């Protein structure tokens, strides 16, 4: 199942004929475990317009979390036992309240994750952001879909790779990614086509070798993330006539063992308006979290509520998290099953 193309390890895609004989798989009812992470989508504005983006972020998007909803997030954190806040977007750093939210959470003793596209740290008005992040011990999970320039630029736009490499070097100089540092720098990989992520451990080793030998860059971990058949990637699959083939690939790769550790069981997503979802992918699809008969729930309504055991909204795209070695915002769920 694993092959090498253009110097990159990947799992091969299956043809429609290969997929057509697979039995239909149905996901069982999933229920929440204890909530550990609040993922906050600060808005869909971004300085990039990546071809795989599930929320279809870009410079033209205007949806941004305002101060009242930021206050609801802070209030929820203050009245919960959560220890981690995961900031995403778009480019979350473009939200005008980003730094205030990070600073408040840091003072509360909450670990903050910034899901960063790297190039945003070189944008006008953001040049001091790296120092701000390091001062607040913010973990950076940086998207770098390949260690080869042509592959990154094809996904993320011209010169995205060169800018990303320069930012990674600067982060290393601040102490990010170093063995003797508490500043965490994790990279995230996603495929550039309709196939599953390769084994995380072997790809991490390859990233270390390539980035280290070519650019002297170090990092803590590499996370692999399967592309979800939604947003721009879903539209691309439809345009190429590959949507059903990809869905069959995900179903064929289904591993029941991953159901215990899928991120929706431990994480909750809140959008720019304050509405709650089981994950950011459900948010992109407009599938809100259901609670006590309510079709749509705001974060402020869940303050002090024990969500353990509540049902999770699932659909066919969820096979993206259960296929192969599994997939989550923290990378592979288990060792790959061959």
Which terms summarize this structure?
alpha/beta, two-stranded antiparallel sheet, eight-stranded mixed sheet, 338 residues, TIM Barrel
Commentary on this structure:
The chain has a single domain, classed as Alpha-Beta Barrel (TIM Barrel), CATH 3.20.20. It has eleven helices and ten strands. It has helices at residues 16-20, 67-78, 98-107, 129-135, 149-156, 160-174, 200-215, 231-239, 243-252, 280-285, 319-322, and strands at 2-5, 8-11, 37-41, 84-88, 111-116, 139-143, 185-189, 221-224, 267-270, 276-277. The protein has an eight-stranded mixed β-sheet. Strands 1-2 form a two-stranded antiparallel sheet. Mean pLDDT is 89; it is low at 1-23.
User: What is the fold-level CATH name, i.e. the topology?
Assistant: TIM Barrel
* Radius of gyration computed on alpha carbons: 19 Å
Classified in CATH, the superfamily is Aldolase class I
The run of helices and strands is EEHEHEHEHEHHEHEHHEEHH
Strand order of the largest sheet: 8-7-6-5-4-3-9-10
* Coarse shape: globular
The structural domain count equals 1
From the helix content, strand content and strand pairing, which structural class follows? alpha/beta
Average the pLDDT over all residues and give the rounded result: 89
């Amino acid at each position: 199942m694993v092959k090498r193309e253009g110097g990159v390890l990947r799992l091969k895609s299956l043809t429609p004929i290969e997929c057509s004989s697979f039995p239909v798989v149905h996901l069982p009812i999933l229920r929440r475990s204890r909530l550990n992470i609040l993922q906050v989508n600060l808005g869909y504005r971004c300085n990039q317009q990546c071809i795989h983006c599930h929320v279809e972020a870009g410079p033209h998007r205007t949806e941004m979390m305002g101060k009242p909803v930021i206050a609801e997030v802070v209030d929820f954190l203050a009245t919960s036992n959560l220890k981690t806040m995961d900031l995403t977007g778009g480019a979350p750093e473009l939200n005008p309240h980003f730094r205030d939210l990070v600073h408040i959470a840091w003072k509360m003793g909450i670990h903050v994750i910034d899901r960063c596209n790297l190039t945003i740290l070189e944008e006008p008005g953001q040049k001091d952001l790296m120092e701000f992040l390091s001062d607040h011990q913010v973990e950076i999970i940086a998207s770098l879909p390949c260690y080869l320039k042509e592959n990154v630029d094809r996904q993320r736009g011209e010169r995205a790779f060169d800018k990303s490499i320069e930012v990674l070097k600067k982060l290393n100089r601040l102490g990010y990614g170093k063995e003797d540092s508490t500043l965490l720098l994790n990279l995230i990989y996603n495929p550039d086509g309709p196939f599953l992520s390769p084994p995380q451990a072997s790809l991490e080793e390859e990233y270390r070798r390539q980035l280290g030998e070519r650019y002297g860059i170090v990092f803590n971990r590499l996370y692999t993330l399967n592309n979800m058949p939604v947003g721009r990637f879903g539209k691309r699959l439809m345009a190429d006539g590959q949507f059903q083939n990809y869905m069959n690939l995900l179903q064929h790769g289904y591993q029941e063992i991953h159901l215990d550790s899928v991120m929706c069981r431990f994480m909750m997503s809140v959008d720019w308006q304050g509405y709650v979802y089981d994950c950011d992918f459900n948010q992109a699809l407009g599938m809100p979290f259901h609670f006590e008969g309510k079709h749509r729930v705001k974060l402020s309504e869940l303050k002090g509520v024990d969500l353990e055991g509540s049902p999770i909204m699932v659909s066919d795209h969820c096979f993206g998290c259960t296929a192969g070695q599994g997939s989550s915002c923290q990378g592979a769920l288990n060792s790959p099953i061959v």
